[in-house]
Every structure is written in structure tokens, then in C-alpha cells.
Amino acid sequence: MEPTRENEPRGDAGRPDPDGEALVDALARSAFVVMGVLNRIGAQYDLSLTQLRVLGILRDRRVRMTDLANFLGLDKSTMSGLVDRAERRGLLERGRNPTDGRAVDVYMTAAGLELAQQAHGEVRRALASATGRLGKQERHRLTQLLEHMLGPADVQEPVGKPS
Amino acid sequence: MEPTRENEPRGDAGRPDPDGEALVDALARSAFVVMGVLNRIGAQYDLSLTQLRVLGILRDRRVRMTDLANFLGLDKSTMSGLVDRAERRGLLERGRNPTDGRAVDVYMTAAGLELAQQAHGEVRRALASATGRLGKQERHRLTQLLEHMLGPADVQEPVGKPS
DNA sequence: GCGGCATGGTTTGTAGTACGAATCAAACTC
DNA sequence: GAGTTTGATTCGTACTACAAACCATGCCGC
Hints:
The structure is a homodimer of 163-residue chains.
Chain A: H1 18-44, H2 49-57, E1 63-64, H3 65-72, H4 76-88, E2 92-96, E3 104-108, H5 110-131, H6 136-150
Antiparallel strand pairs in A: 1-3, 2-3
Chain A binds a DNA duplex (30 and 30 nucleotides) through residues 48, 50-51, 64-66, 74-82, 84-85, 97, 100-104.
């Protein structure tokens, strides 16, 4: 993920937007809360946040190392180390790619799948103490607004990055 | 925790709550997007995410090391190292606490304040590419819902943690 | 006032994470 | 077949995170 310097104001950026600033703050706070939960639950399983993400991605698919690294925005050497440690734990395995002899596929073991599912359930329960403050219709509305703001889930275009 | 289509059985309610699960997934995706932005902009300034948070907290106040560590959920030795590196960069300074000879206060330098303000502005602009997908009223509503869910900003009670 | 205990912070050791450069094997192109 | 590109690993380095040990300061009971 290359750092960029994007200082040009957006077309509407010159106008004061109190809701925009409050929204950014609320999104940041929400992000830290979610990360806090993920870090705490990850620690229970002796897993880092990034390891949790890896396990989450691989729960239902087999992925190439390169694609995994790109999806997570990590250097391939970092990806290699993460998979090393997960493999050592018996959570992941590496395999040959059927179409490219250079490529390495990564997939879950049964033990890894079980741990990922347990951790996922605990993350949901932990976050329910916050989402439970909202009523049912509010939760529905919040979900809609977030999904609208985030765009399609399968598009991994970094936010705020010039293209 | 990347969103998937799998529906896992819930241990607590027993009742399916599609909006609850979708909301957790949306919150997780939102969190990764925000973290991605913070990491990218932090890298521009050669700062880690945690360093950015520290600078954000200290922009308008002078804080004890212990309080800073507690606020961030970090070990005091970690806090010490983070402040070491920021001090070495000329962004922060340590000072004596007027009421407790053991305590060390941390505060911003002018250079640190300038950097923090620049970085903050860039984070806001970067996130505007996502929040700009919403209309004005939608942004207002999203802010309200997030703040309602998160509770008061000054309470640092960890979400989902048994007490 | 003093000893014991607690607190605040630093230092040391360790492991994981992150990136960049170097390296090697496989694939692609001409 | 040679040159280039790609995929992944290894190595070196710095940062982050925690735990244990240590030292200085503060608190409290006697």
C-alpha cells in the first residue's frame, strides 16, 4: 500500500460540513471499538488481528498467497511469515497451485476452521453489547447506511486513494 | 473478520437476527476501511497507527503516561517505547508531574501539533471519499446512530468485556 | 520517623508484524 | 534458448506489544 500525498481539496471540501467531521470522528471511534474487540478476542486464541482476518478470509475458500497479501494490503514477505506461523499452529496449510507451478495456495485445516468459527461467534457476541443499544429498526438502518457508504463488499478499492 | 454469507448459529438468543449479523459485518468492514486509511496516512508521516492515536489524544492536553496507556489499552512499557520514539522525532516531550514525583507528563511540541493537524486533515479528506457517497441527511443519521451505539465518548469501557 | 507495601515509569528480553532487498524457481515473451 | 517477469521465501531491520525485573517515589500503619 503505497503512501500518497493528496492535498488537493475535493470539489465540496471548501464548505464547512459539521456532520462530515462528526461522522469521521464517529467512524474512527467505531473502528477503534471494533479493533479493540478483535484484538481482545484474538488474544484469547493467541492470535493477532491480522491472523484473525486471514482465518476469516480462508474460512470458505482456498486462496493464492499473492491474492491473500493483496487483499489484506500486506507485503508478500509479511504474508509468508503470517502463514508460516499459522501453519506451525496447525491452522492453515500450503498446497501446490494446479495451474501455476510458482504459486502457493493456502487453505484451512479442520482445526483452523473450528477456531475461526469460535472466534467469529465471540466477536459477534462481544459487539452485540454495543449494537444492542440500538432498536431493531435502527440496526437495520445503520446496516443500510454503512453498506451504502462502503460500496460493494467484493471491491477492494482503498478508500481515499487517488486512482 | 471479513463478511461471508454463512449463517452461524447464535448461542445466546437462539433467534435468527440477520440485521445483527449484517451489522457486525458492516461494522467490521467499516473498521478495516478506517484503519486502512489511518495506516496509509500514518505511513506518509512515518508514523504507526498507535502513534497517530497518541498524537490525536495529546493535541489539546497534557497527559500522564499511565493515563495515556490506560486510554489506549496498552502496557506501560509499550507506552514508554512509543513516547521514546515520538520524543526522538521531536513530536512529544516528557515533563515532571507537579503533584506526583513518580509520574511523568507527556505533551505535544509545536512540530508535533503541526504534524497532527496535517495528518488529521488528510484522514478527514480521505474518508470523505466514502462518506461522500451518502447524502447530507444520511450522514447526519449515520452519525446519530453510531454515537447512540457507541455511547458517551469519554467512557472508555471496553465493549463486550465481562465485568 | 520508619519499615513495608503500592505505584509510576524505565529497562531488558522475547515474539510477532511489517517492509525492503536479495534470491531462486517457474512462467512468459521474443 | 535467452532475457524478463512473476510468485514465494529468506534475511535484515525497525517497531509494537507484553511480561518480568528494577528503581524512585508515595502511602500507610505502627
